[in-house]
Every structure is written in structure tokens, then in C-alpha cells.
Amino acid sequence: MKVVIISGSPRKNGNTQVIMKYIFEYTKSKNSDTKLINLSDGQIECYKGPEEEYNEHTKNAANDITNADVWLIGSPIYNSFFSSALKNLFEYINYKKTEGKVAGMAILASSNIGFVDVQTLITQLLSYFRVITNPKAVFLTTESISENTISNDDDKKRLRELVDETLKMASKLHQD
Question: Domain 3-173 falls in which CATH fold?
């Protein structure tokens, strides 16, 4: 299976990338064909329409997402919504080529508010792409991050379970 990890925060020192790098390392230990797209590296261009020419990093990210069987998406909550950088990334994806893929998500906020709203919004976006979403998202607050690492063992366990359950869903759906 091909897996893509998407860290949806554009912030250079964002906590979302701490979580998604943890997910990336864990997923890579289970599945060698795993790639990380970190939106904080600033290399994904702003979408301007299908007739435009985009840089290689942007094209590669779009191809990696389109070709992956599993998407593990992490997003911060900004103003009761997921990041605009994440929405921008999905402008490059052709919904006609994503049916049947499986996604899981981790959502990060500064407090325990808005998680279900943002989970619903991301699930709706993924539904447009005909992606089957793991209904068990992981919700974390910034209190889970200390010195650029996940400080709570229970949070790490929940993130590993998200990966395991999402990969299991995908393998069941893609059995021939």
C-alpha cells in the first residue's frame, strides 16, 4: 500500500508537524511506501487554476496524494476551520482519481473546542473526493506537545491506533 502523511499547518514551528512527523515515523515502520507532505515547508504554491504551470514540489505532492491508497491527514484548528493551506493542497487533486481511498485524521487545537466541527468539515471534503474516512479521529490539544515532542504516552498510543486502524480499513477494502 502507498501511504501519504499530510501535515496541514503552514506554520514553520507548528505543533501539527510534530504530531504528523510522529505518525510518519510510526507508519513508515509498518509500511515502507510512506511519504510525508509537510505544508510548513512552504513549497506548495497557491492554486491559480488548471491552466497554470506549477513547481515540481507542488506537482509531486499532488501525484503522491493521487497515487496513495491511504491518506493520514493532520490539521490544526484555525478560526473554527481546518487550515487554508490544507484546502489549497486539495485544489490540485482530481476527485475522479481518488475514489475508494481511505483516510484518517488527527486534529489539533489550543483547547477542547471545535474538534467535531472540523472533523465534519474535513470528512465532507474527503467525501467530495469519494474517500472513505476512518470515523475515529484523534483530537489533541497543544498541551500534548512539549519541546517539539508529544509528551503524553496515551496520546502517542491513540495516534498509533489511528494509523493501525486506518491501514487495517484500507487493507480490508482493497482485498481482491
Answer: Rossmann fold (3.40.50)
